[in-house]
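Milestone 3.1: sequence recovery, worked example.
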């Protein structure tokens, strides 16, 4: 999967949870989009289920924008031998 495909899939996944279709890749989910802790946990759970990965808790605080989520997801996928093509 390419990084562009991953970004698009993650944006769609997040948009479905937060019910906001139009947001920028660097919008802060909490301060710009009003994402609460329950939505944030749902985002993490769906990413884990969709990509069959485990996101360690220490990453949660870093996952504030789509850009950050893409980077972390990509890093974990690569570490688990699920490479993302650039």
């Amino acid at each position: 999967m390419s990084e562009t495909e991953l970004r698009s899939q993650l944006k769609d996944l997040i948009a479905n949870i937060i019910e906001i279709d139009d947001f920028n890749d660097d919008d802060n989910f909490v301060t710009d989009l009003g994402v609460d802790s329950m939505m944030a946990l749902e985002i993490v759970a769906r990413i884990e289920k969709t990509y069959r990965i485990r996101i360690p808790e220490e990453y949660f605080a870093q996952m504030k924008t789509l850009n950050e989520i893409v980077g972390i997801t990509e890093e974990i996928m690569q570490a688990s031998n699920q490479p993302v093509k650039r």
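The domain at 3-79 is CATH 1.10.1200.10 (Non-ribosomal Peptide Synthetase Peptidyl Carrier Protein; Chain A). The longest helix spans residues 3-18.
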